[in-house]
Design brief:
The complex is a heterodimer of chains A (472) and B (241). Chain A has 472 residues and is α/β, with parallel strands linked by helices. Chain A is 52% helix and 10% strand. Chain A folds into three domains: 126 residues, no CATH class; 234 residues, NagB/RpiA/CoA transferase-like (Rossmann fold, 3-Layer(aba) Sandwich); 72 residues, no CATH class. The chains are: A alpha/beta (472), B alpha/beta (241).
Chain lengths: 472, 241
């Protein structure tokens, strides 16, 4: 485990305020979801999940076909599709376009993909101003942080911290009433919307048969960012494709329910192309940037392919007892929680943080709530295997490998197993019925110490079950 | 109805909590089953499997197959170990058709204890008396991999003198997770303490579960917190009179 990962976990666990903020907020989202997928409210919930999984599977396995269909339809509406291999190609496209149009100010709506490719930083390095307009994203942009959570990026911030941040960065009076903070942000952002040259959004879905993008949001900022400026650029991963508009009947029923416990988000926008002559608003230019950034590599592996089904609802984060303890910033990349624990090693390689797939009790709560039925625990198990293979190649962690070889040998030799059990038991003091606070000297090695550091140890019984069985 | 039942007590019960195995044997005998304890048994191999050591897990799994292959019905006092054999052995031997066929033939005969009682023996009232207020912890693998939710509760509902008080949330992991408990000791400990708080809020005097490993984690944390609350396997409750 990297020292950084360990430190983040330790610091988060030690921060009482953060612990309660994360546990409470995720708990609220988790309960909200449970209430709206309950059998009496949504009797066909499980069928919807099965259907969503099947649609995603079909779309991902026929990605080339549907992406080309999408491109044809976008262009038929007067939009343009741009294909990008990675973040630098996306940035080059935006920078080039901004230069040609003389654009300086960009308003952005929330997008995990643009976080994934550090788009704001790339653009700001070239003198463009790129402003996040989702309130949570705006807060973390001011704080120069990564999103803490896929759908609630500033989940970890208290209103006092937001007050401090606004005072420091926006030079406004210290204000801790949330409604007033929102009003402050709104006043600042409204000016940005009106002055912006380009609006950048993500896309929750790319609809192949209609050449439309779908945006799901609650604040209305995405709608404004995509219609007020003259140019709209939607940037999305290629896996966001769904074949038909009617497939949205399945996904829109699942997305807001899984994410926030809403039946439907406040705004659901279908955008297909620039403003037409008879329309009163909308951008003059419409671009959809389709980004690979490692996705086609996942596509090659049957087992990993299903990670591309993810619709970024964040339900697995709220359900995860590990995320709820270690929070979003302990994770090494922009994606946190169970989905982050599989996407990070799959996208960046297991060596990025070899301990990540092991940071799970494999409780399965994530798979239970996933609206597209990604088998996250199985993916974690496969990744653990991949980490061990990489360690063997690099000749790392050889002591653990040896320990498991001994384990396998002992467990396939019952007499040796029985003897080993007796020897381990004899290292403990005589049974006195109480659980032990400390590890006895002989047994005081790594894993035993790690156990006793947090919990008491069971005293070994006078006889094993097999000994008792023989005596009865 | 199978008359002969073989016990797979699991390594953790064999080595640390033999009273759970004895209690399970008492309950099954009382129901008229003839019991058999295959002496060659050790472990299901889950520690190696969950730690990414598939080859080592296969060695242990093959041993398990050799030991239990001839048994009519195998009852296990753990949802997690039963699930290992039922759900993960097929993954382990996906590329070995012959062993896979053996695994598939065997998995039909492996039963988690509470499910065996309700689904195979067809009983809910085993004649137990346990005058106490208890709360029930859903082990993750029993719940989510094996789908066991109502069986233990139906069995507890028939125990004389027992009052069940559900904790909120009952379905959240206790933080054990096998080697996770020691690889991420501090995190696992924090998860255990959250579980302990949920238990203490019920005012119950005992926590009951289907998994000895969850009980070890919970009891370890309860004991560290100085709590008097006891931990019991369902079999221990059902064996009481």
């Amino acid at each position: 485990m990297s020292a950084e990962f360990q430190q983040h976990i330790h610091d988060t666990l030690a921060d009482g305020r953060l612990q309660s903020a994360v546990y409470t907020s995720t708990g609220r989202l988790k309960e909200g979801r449970s209430a709206v997928v309950a059998h009496d409210v949504l009797p066909d919930y499980q069928e919807l999940r099965t259907q969503a999984n099947a649609i995603k599977k079909h779309a991902i396995e026929n990605l080339d076909h549907y992406l080309e269909e999408f491109e044809r339809n976008v262009e038929a509406h007067g939009g343009r599709v741009v294909w990008c291999k990675d973040g630098s190609e996306v940035a080059d496209f935006v920078l080039e376009l901004a230069k040609e149009r003389g654009a300086r100010l960009i308003v952005k709506s929330k997008s995990m993909l643009t976080e994934e490719i550090d788009l704001n930083e790339r653009l700001e390095r070239h003198g463009l101003e790129s402003v996040e307009t989702d309130l949570g994203e705006y807060i973390i942009q001011l704080a120069h942080e990564r999103p803490y959570h896929i759908v609630a990026p500033a989940l970890h911030k208290t209103r006092e911290q937001v007050a401090d941040l606004f005072t420091a960065r926006l030079h406004v009076p210290h204000e801790t009433v949330i409604e007033k903070q929102t009003a402050t942000a709104r006043a600042v952002l409204r000016e940005k919307f009106l002055a912006a040259d380009i609006g950048i959004s993500g896309a929750n879905f790319l609809v192949a048969d209609s050449g439309a993008i779908v945006l799901v949001e609650n604040e209305g900022n995405a709608r404004l960012a995509t219609s007020a400026p003259k140019i709209h650029i939607a940037i999305a991963g290629i896996e966001k494709i769904v074949p038909r508009a009617q497939d949205l009947a399945t996904f829109l029923k699942l997305l807001a329910r899984s994410a926030t416990g809403q039946l439907l988000s406040v705004y659901t926008s279908f955008l297909s192309g620039p403003r037409r002559p008879d329309e009163i608003d909308g951008p003059e230019e419409f671009y959809v940037v389709l980004v690979d950034n490692g996705r086609t590599r996942l596509l090659q592996e049957r087992e990993k392919r299903q990670s591309l089904y993810c619709i970024r609802c964040g339900a697995c984060l709220n359900a995860c007892p590990v995320y709820r303890k270690i929070g979003g910033h302990s994770f090494p990349w922009v994606y946190s929680g169970p989905i982050g624990a599989i996407l990070t090693p799959q996208f960046l390689g297991v060596q990025r943080e070899p301990a990540l797939p092991f940071a799970s009790s494999l409780c399965g709560a994530c798979a239970e709530v996933c609206p597209v039925k990604i088998d996250i625990p199985k993916a974690l198990l496969d990744l653990r295997c991949e980490v061990k293979k990489a360690e063997m190649r690099e000749k790392q962690n050889r002591l653990e490998k040896l320990a498991f070889r001994v384990f396998a040998w002992v467990m396939s030799h019952p007499r040796i197993y029985e003897m080993a059990g007796r020897m381990a038991g004899s290292a403990f003091p005589e049974e006195n019925a109480g659980w032990l606070r400390r590890v006895p000297g002989l047994m005081n090695f790594g894993p035993m110490r790690a156990w006793a550091d947090q919990r008491d140890l069971p005293p070994p019984p006078a006889r094993s079950f097999r000994e008792m069985w023989r005596r009865r | 109805m199978a008359q002969r039942v073989s016990l797979f007590v699991t390594c953790i019960v064999d080595q640390l909590f033999p009273q759970i195995g004895m209690a399970m044997a008492h309950v099954l005998e009382r129901l008229g089953y003839q019991l058999d304890f295959p002496e060659g048994q050790t472990c299901c191999g889950q520690p190696a499997f969950n730690s990414g050591y598939r080859q080592e897990a296969r060695i242990v799994a093959r041993h398990f197959l050799d030991v239990f292959e001839k048994c009519e019905a195998i009852v296990v006092p753990s949802g997690s170990c039963a699930s290992m054999a039922i759900h993960h052995f097929p993954d382990l031997f996906a590329k070995e058709p012959e062993t896979l066929a053996r695994v598939r033939a065997l998995r039909e005969r492996i039963w988690e204890f509470s499910t065996f009682l309700t689904a195979v023996a067809g009983v809910e009232d085993v004649g137990a008396r346990f005058p106490d207020v208890v709360t029930f912890h859903d082990g993750c693998h029993a719940l989510r991999e094996m789908g066991v939710k109502s069986a233990p509760r139906r069995l507890l509902a028939q125990v004389r003198g027992l009052e069940l008080r559900e904790m909120q949330p009952a379905e959240e992991c206790c933080g054990f997770g096998g080697t996770f408990a020691v690889k991420f000791g501090e995190l696992s400990g924090a998860m255990a303490r959250t579980k302990v708080e949920a238990i203490l809020r019920t005012g119950a005097r005992s926590v009951v579960s289907l998994d000895p490993s969850c009980l070890m984690q919970i009891r370890g944390a309860l004991s560290r917190a100085g709590s008097e609350v006891r931990t019991l396997h369902l079999a221990e409750v059902l064996a009481s009179r």
